[in-house]
Write a structure and sequence with these properties.
Helix content: 25-40%
Strand content: 15-25%
Number of helices: 14
Number of strands: 11
Oligomer: single chain
Length: 337
């Protein structure tokens, strides 16, 4: 724990919503939803990313709770800004207040189009970004799954919390079946975490730094059990407050949150300090992708091992038996010992 002065930005917090329903359907601790709810209640127009009916990641202007639900949870795919810049300009012209939640590079790009006085009408929120995966890879992944299961994919979840706070993916098909095969559905996330599917510019990212150009930065608080001793595995948001405006917003929503002051050093996120590392055979991967296709490279570069399969199904079985929090606690105690 630490006692930094308010003016010593950034300030670091572990944050979790008190709303159990929001917590259950959020990727981590629910801070995005609480910020979005604050925006809706105060007639602040919120802009962020959704996965639309075509399974395309696109930014929209949120105006109601249904929009917020679509914005909730992470989208691990290259997104489009759509027409939000035009809409934001119009909102500013009409003296509306705005909240933008997006990747640090997109936030920086949009910021450049506004004057200093206009920027003050906008609440700028970014997130700690591992890198942006190519939308072509995601599109080919969807096509592969549709051919494999002989049905159209109508819903995709990059983060499923049903089996605890982690990275379990699943899809829903047009024939109403739900699939979350570790071997097949999880191909996409394995390419993401091995860095092969990331856009090449991500390896020279200028925004991997502690001093942020936003009001608030959000992420998952991985390792929170070691810092705060909270071992229920329900999810916790890592939050950086980067400005007076960000601090004022946190004060306004704090009654709906469990808030824990921590040190910045407690956040071990790589993107807070340096860009994601480029694989040595990254160029070969993309050469073979163009020549031999998605299935070939996903098999070659992200082979699934027994440890991954065992870990995934252990978590799923534990969740069904309702002992996942107990096992997580045991694991935490063994690590400390």
């Amino acid at each position: 724990m630490c006692k930094d002065k308010v003016e010593n930005f950034p300030l670091a917090y572990g944050i979790r919503t008190k709303n159990e329903e929001i917590l259950k359907t959020s990727s981590s601790g629910g801070i995005f939803s609480e910020l979005a709810n604050y925006a809706l209640k105060n007639n602040i127009k919120i802009y962020s990313c959704i996965l639309n009916e075509k399974l395309e990641a696109v930014h929209i202007r949120g105006i109601n709770e249904n929009d917020i639900k679509k914005m909730r949870t992470s989208k691990y795919v290259e997104s489009s800004l759509g027409n939000i810049l035009k809409l934001m300009k119009n909102d500013i012209k009409n003296n509306e207040k705005i909240m933008l939640v997006s990747s640090p590079c997109y936030v920086a790009t949009i910021k450049k189009t506004f004057s200093e006085s206009e920027r003050n009408q906008i609440i700028w929120v970014d997130f700690l970004c591992h890198g942006m995966p190519s939308k072509k890879v995601f599109q080919d992944h969807i096509k592969y799954l549709e051919n494999l299961y002989s049905s159209k994919v109508i819903f995709y979840s990059f983060r499923d919390k049903r089996y605890s706070w982690n990275h379990d993916e699943y899809i829903i098909l047009e024939n109403k079946k739900r699939k979350q095969s570790v071997k097949e559905v999880h191909r996409y996330k394995r390419l993401f975490y091995s860095n092969y599917s990331l856009l090449s510019r991500c390896f020279q990212c200028k925004y991997t730094k502690i001093k942020r150009d936003t009001d608030i930065t959000i992420a998952d608080f991985w390792g929170v059990e070691s810092v705060l001793g909270i071992v229920d595995n329900k999810g916790m948001s890592a939050v950086l407050i980067n400005s007076v405006k960000g601090k004022e917003i946190l004060e306004k929503i704090k009654n709906s949150l469990y808030t824990y002051k921590v040190n910045i050093e407690d956040f071990k996120h790589g993107p807070l300090y340096q860009p994601t590392e480029k694989p040595k055979d990254y160029d070969l991967f993309w050469k073979e992708y163009k020549e031999k296709g998605y299935l070939y490279v996903s098999d070659k570069y992200t082979k699934i091992d027994a440890k991954t399969i065992f870990s995934t199904y252990r978590r799923r079985i534990a969740a069904v038996l309702k002992i996942e929090h107990f096992l997580f606690w045991i694991k935490y105690k063994l690590k400390r010992k």
